[in-house]
Specification:
With about 290 residues, the chain is of the alpha+beta class. The protein has nine helices and twelve strands. The protein has two domains: about 60 residues, Phosphorylase Kinase, domain 1, CATH 3.30.200.20; about 210 residues, Transferase(Phosphotransferase) domain 1 (Transferase(Phosphotransferase), domain 1, Orthogonal Bundle). Helix 3 packs antiparallel against helix 5, helix 3 packs antiparallel against helix 8 and helix 7 runs antiparallel to helix 8.
Amino acid sequence: MIGSGGYGQIYLAMDILKYEERAVKIEPRMRQESITKRMIMEQEALQSLQGKLHCPLMYASGYNDEFNFIVMQLLSENVGDIRKRSPTGRLSKESVGRIAWQTVNALRDIHEMGYVHRDVKPANICFGCHFENRHILYLLDFGLFRRFKDTTTGQRFPPRKNAGFKGTERYVSVRVHEKLEQTPLDDLFSVLYTSYELMVGEVPWRFLDDVEEIYAVKQLMNELGNNGEMFKGIASFLVDFHRLLVSCDPNDDPPYEKLMECLKKLFETKSLEDPYDWEDGFRITLNASFVEPK
């Protein structure tokens, strides 16, 4: 077993015909006397996204009497675990900028297909594990995917009055705390919180357990005149990205290009093909010095 979570496990497997390693994700077919549907939804989403740069390849899926399974491309460890390996507990702005830029690009593909992800976080972001794809980011875990629009007409579905809480408390937007219907903008706020944690080492609400207290701190972060303490030091490089998100209407399509331009400022001296922190012993984070953006 190479991974596990609340919904199942991931195992390392070998394709004995092609002599290639694979990842096999399984979940119990029955949970609390009901047929589980999370992996069925994930399989449908994966199938529709095959061929997209940031979507892992899916080789097979199915079920038996005990569990559902998906056989997919093997990837590296997630960026959350990579951050924890860093001697400083964080990643450089150059690496985080490229992670965030590729994540926004991945989400644009997902949103154009009519889905919202609803669980963007460091644990669901990986890179390829072979030389040719080691700098390509892959967004994982499509079990909370939900369609938000008809891709034929481009029309969004009417929002539910109470959409419930779907996602991970640390990374969901203020709107998710308010149980509003999630839109692409909510995924992008999760990119912000993910980037903040990777670059700073922790989000401002890291040590809070009460969901209402977490909600209150996120609200404060969105008050542009009162959030200065949260964007000091290295976090100041995320100010423009955050301001643009706050200015967006959740019912409109996000300005992906503008958001990606904000993120490019974090890695303007690097290309997507340059080594990331974990490829050079975290040298940049150990020797980091920076000037806050003007």
